[in-house]
Structure formats: structure tokens, C-alpha cells
């Protein structure tokens, strides 16, 4: 087993092979990586079977099993995801700005890769290929540290991707999977100062908080979503119903699903009973006092229910006096991910979009759209909930930084 | 005395007054702030006298005294600096990207202020007005925590700036100076999670490291500069001489001055004796063995001399075999601030600019130009030495983030 430190040292030694690669080289590598995923599909599915068997033995939840599972279609989707990146423009080497100073020196601001990106994630095998492909297209070396449940699958996927890199003439040492899935390796990545240029944790709130709290390398916080839908007094009830049902029930386990419904007091009497009828016992409603009286089978909301990412068929419901109170509540309780207002009133929409301080703010649209694919980024590195560097879905551009190159003929500063 | 916590709470309460201000309102405020600095010049100079007297009593270095000193001209320069920002474009409210998805929803990515920016700095009084003015133009509330040596000066400056804000109809509570200059207040800012959106330390290496290590709020690391000049075998000797002398001696106390000279072995014999003659005893040369033999009065470089920001008339000198060794040395020892190559060889210049991983990479230009003013940003918030979010001199744009506003008519995700 290669130790994590040895992998880091090897990545530093080889990273320039991808940091300085041309667009053509990178796209060739992506094509070869996609081909190799398909060619090595048997090995990948066999490895996945090992992971699935171990997962079943350890009585993992059916949601986790579903995430972990690979089949022919899913591997082909991974390959298609890689090929989709080929068509996207290269984010590296762009001249972002260029000026010539009065003394004749030319100041050119150019986009460059970070260098080495680290990713700590959990059980979904497609994250392995998505992130490796995003790294290659954006010119970054990458060190992947997946969850132990998916280790064999990730290993087989990385083996295929490395074959593709070799075929395309790029050192396969620019993509590495950490071999040790204990906590130690996560800590080693978090503290690899001067080696890892950017570390992204992707997974549950516990994992993300641990990384944000303990890392000494630059981190982008992702994913935790306590998302709100506010139904204004001037909402179209049909749209409100459809958006709340979609935001809550279409995929409750993901970060862009809604956890909290805020409803204007003037429309609560009309809207809440209709909503309850449509949710038809599928969703547990946890309501504040005014809302409670309008539901038939809700339970009183507890102290923490407005600060919890349920990731389940549970919705906290609160009645508010207007858009200002909704904005204030969101300011206090949101994780800064995605929030929606449903209204036909332009002024209410304006106040909401101006004042809600989250990565994605929706007017008459479900929060479920906050996603790299939906935003046109191909796949995504993760969804940033911080304000520094990147916000919302992160794609190729968010994996770049820049430098200034200044050329002259002997200019000195007087 | 208002406590730091009370100031933070007040800033949160009032920040929307500046976060949502229009370009016209912000420019009016800047004009009034500049006017008030000039109108209150007597009070500012009187306050500065108090600081200067206390500084002299505590036997502070002449460099520090020079930094602390205000006079009529310097206050007028501060006002002029604020007025210069009026002419720059507003970085807020820009539509950075806009697309309409296949389902008809419009996705608009817009630049917005961070919200509340914190700055921890030391004794130069103009930082107080520069940073407050940058904050106002970029729509941010700001909490300033200056050094205790400059407290009275900073207080008088902030009083004037607040008068300007009031006159322009913007709540003066959006710019605050921390009243407590003990360590406690710095710690309070570093840990004001959920309140301060971005914290920038500006000053000595000790201050910056303390903030980077201990902050739980987002921080941008600034300023420490172990800057290198590499004189290639194909250098024009006259340019090399002029650049090295300028980079080392024009202002040794600032972060963009050079600390290390790397020189190609083929040119060392010619160049180093000429350099020594020109530095004429003004600069202490600390040389590796090969360089030592070419100087008359150098001392042997110690272990730490290639990892020290001298900020003084000291230069570490090392002979290298070529541009690759220079790049490797810089990769190991640089703080990622500014590095220069002197060469007439395009290929050497290309290797250097591609492979050196610093914020500013110069070809035949002195490192001393890494500066917000020189790069056309007006004044600067600081010089970032990190790769995330911002690199090099930070101006208005680097004080912004963005959000996605998505508008539709009931779109849900299927």
C-alpha cells in the first residue's frame, strides 16, 4: 500500500504534466479516460459487487446501497459525463485582463490551474470519475479520498482513468486515489499545507464540518442545505403547491431539497390545507402554532426543526407576517444554499432576491435546480455554500485561479 | 467604550444600508467622506500628534514613526485617494453571466458585496481611509481594527468619514473602528463566524500568521513577500543591475522588495562583482559558497537566509545551474508573492512565467510594481499571497462575491 504522504509527494513531482498540458492533450486524455471506463466495465462492476456485498453485510440503509450501486448504464453515464466535458471551453490560459502601463510594461492576468486539488467524499462512485475528469480538463492534479464503502469501485474506476491518461501520453500519476480509508488519511489531506492547493469535502454535514474546522489547507465548504420556500400572500396557489411538493418530495436526500416552508399569514388559511391534502401523509409536517391550527395531522415544531437538514420526508412550517419576516428568518436559519419565493408580486420578489444572502435565490422556481448539470457546467465539483472564491455549483472555472505576468524591458519603480 | 461585540451587532443591523446602496449613493458618500477628511484636518492632525508623542515616548523605530506621521499633505492624499475611487466602475450589480434554460427559467449570475468585511492592520493611518473607501465603493460594511499606536489618528479619520456618510444619507454605522486595541478584539473578529464575511489581516508576518491560524471566519492571507530575482545567463547585465538594485534598495521595508538573488553560474562571475560595486556597502550580501568567492565582502548565507523576509538592506545570493533550478528553488522557498527573471532569452522567460507559481511573475521588470495603485486598482485592500478567491493586489472586484438569481413561472425539476 502506498502511503498518503508518498502519493502527495508523487503528485507534486508529476503535477506539472497536467498543469502545463495543452487543451488538445487534455481533451485527448478525457476521450481515452471515457473509453477506458467502458473497456474496463467488467472489472469495475466486479469491484462494485465486492463493495455491495460488504455493504449489505454491514446492514447499510437502502438509500446508501442505491447510491453505491453500479451497473452497465451507470458506468456508461460516467463515460458520457467525461465526454461532455470535452465540448466545454478550456478554462485555462485565458487572458482575463491585459493593460500596458504608462512605463511600457505589459500586465497580463491569466487563468491557471490551482495545481493540486484534494477531494474528500463518500460513497457515490460517479464522484470519482466526475471529479477526476473536471480536474483533468481544468489542468489540475487530483488526490481523491473516497469512503471505505466504495473503495473497490473507486479503485477500479481510477485504474481505468489512469489507463486512459497513459494512452494519451499524460503521466497517470496526476490522478491518485488514497489507499487508506481511515480517518488518518483525511487528516493528512486536511493538513497537507503547501502541497494541496484546494480541498473540497463533499458529503454529509459531519464530514464537511470536520474538514472546515480542522483543515490548514484552503477549503471550500459545500453542500449543507437548509433550503427555504416562502409562499407570499400574492402567490399563485397552483405554482406554490407544485413548487413546494417538488422541492420537498422529488428527492428529499439531496442538499437542494426544501426543509422549511414559510407562508404568509394572509394565504396560510387557503394554502396549508391544500398542501396537506397533496402531501397525503407522505411528508411529516412540523408546524409552528399558527400553522398547526390549519393542518389536520401536523405535529408541533420543536426548537431545532428550523435548523435541521432533515434530508427526509419532513417539512418544518412557519407562518410569517410578510416578505421582510421571511427574509429575516432565512438570514438567521439558512445555510446559504438555495431559497425560493413564490409570488406574482414584483416588489416582493425584488426584496427577496436582493436581501436573501444565499448562493441561489429563486423566484417561482423549485430549489431543486441548484446543480452543476442544470446550470450548464457539465458535472460539478460540489456546491459551495461559502462566499469566498465560489458560490453555488462549482464547475471548471471554479477550479482555476490566476496569476499576473508582467513583461517589460528593464522597468524599475522610482 | 462600545464593545467589539456591540459594534458587530450594530454593523449587522445596519449593513443593508450600504449592501443595497446604488452607485450614485455610494459615489456621493465617497465625495462627502473626502470633503470631511479635509474639513476635519485640524482634528485629525491633533489626534495624530497624540499618537506621535506616545510613539516617541515608547522609543519606536524611526521607520514606524515615519509610517505613523500625518501632515496636511498626507491627509489631502487620503482624500484624493477616496476621490479616485469615484471614477472607477461600480463592481456591484454586474450581470456576470445570464442564460435561459430549456425549461424557460432564467439563470442570472450577479456580483454582490460580501456583506461585512473585517480588517486587522497596524500603524499606517491611510489604511483606515483607503479600506473604508474601498468598502463603501464595493457596497460592504466594514469593521476596522488598527494598531494601538495609531488609535487616535484612526479614530479621528473614522469620525470624519462617518460625518461624510451621514451627510450623504447613508447610516454612519456601516463603518466602525474597534475601540479595544488589545489582543482580545482581534480574537473576537477572527471568531465572529456568521457575522464577518471576509477578514483581511495586513501587516507583519506575525500578525498575518496569527490570523490565518486562528480565524474561523473566511480569511485572505496577505503580504508576506520573500521575493526572488533570477538573473539568467542570457540577461542584459545593465537591466539586471538596475532591476536588482531597484528591487532590493528602493524601499526594503515593503513586501514587494526582493530578498533573494538567484544568478546563473555562467553569468555570476561577470555580474556579481559589478553588483557588489553598485550596492557599495549599502546592502549586506549573504552568499552561498559559489557566490561567496565572487564577492569581496559578503558573508556566508546561513540556513534560514533563503527563507527570511528581511525587510532590510540584506540580500541572500545563490548561484544556480539554470532556469529549472531557479524555478525549483523558488517553488521551495517563495511565499508566492512576486518573482522576476532577467533574460533576453524567450524560452527561459517562458519556462519561468509558466512554472513559477506566484501571484506576480515579472520578465525584465522589478518586483516592486506589485501594488494596487500600479496595477490600476486605485488603492488596495492588501496583496493576496493565496490562490483561493484573489491573488496579488486586491481592489474593488476582490471585495465582491456573487449569487445566482433564478426567475421563472413555476418550473419544477422532474
UniProtKB/TrEMBL annotation, chains A, B:
Output one GO BP term. Answer: L-proline biosynthetic process
Keyword set, alphabetical order: Amino-acid biosynthesis, Coiled coil, Cytoplasm, NADP, Oxidoreductase, Proline biosynthesis
Catalytic activity, EC: 1.2.1.41
Q: Write out the coiled-coil annotation as residue ranges.
A: 20-47
Q: In which pathway does it act?
A: Amino-acid biosynthesis; L-proline biosynthesis; L-glutamate 5-semialdehyde from L-glutamate: step 2/2
The main location is: cytoplasm
Q: List the Gene3D superfamilies.
A: Aldehyde Dehydrogenase, Chain A, domain 1, Aldehyde Dehydrogenase, Chain A, domain 2
Q: What's the short name of a Pfam family annotated to this entry?
A: Aldedh
- Aldehyde dehydrogenase domain: residues covered: 25-279
Q: Which reaction does it catalyse?
A: L-glutamate 5-semialdehyde + phosphate + NADP(+) = L-glutamyl 5-phosphate + NADPH + H(+)
- What would be one Gene Ontology cellular-component term for the protein? cytoplasm
Q: Where in the cell is it found?
A: Cytoplasm
Q: Enumerate the GO terms in the molecular function aspect.
A: glutamate-5-semialdehyde dehydrogenase activity; NADP binding
Similarity section: Belongs to the gamma-glutamyl phosphate reductase family.
Under the heading HAMAP family, the entry gives: ProA
NCBIfam families linked: PRK00197.1 (NF001221), proA (TIGR00407)
Function field: Catalyzes the NADPH-dependent reduction of L-glutamate 5-phosphate into L-glutamate 5-semialdehyde and phosphate. The product spontaneously undergoes cyclization to form 1-pyrroline-5-carboxylate.
Please identify the protein, giving its name as recorded: Gamma-glutamyl phosphate reductase
Q: Which organism is it from?
A: Streptococcus varani
The organism's taxonomy opens as: Bacteria, Bacillati, Bacillota, Bacilli, Lactobacillales
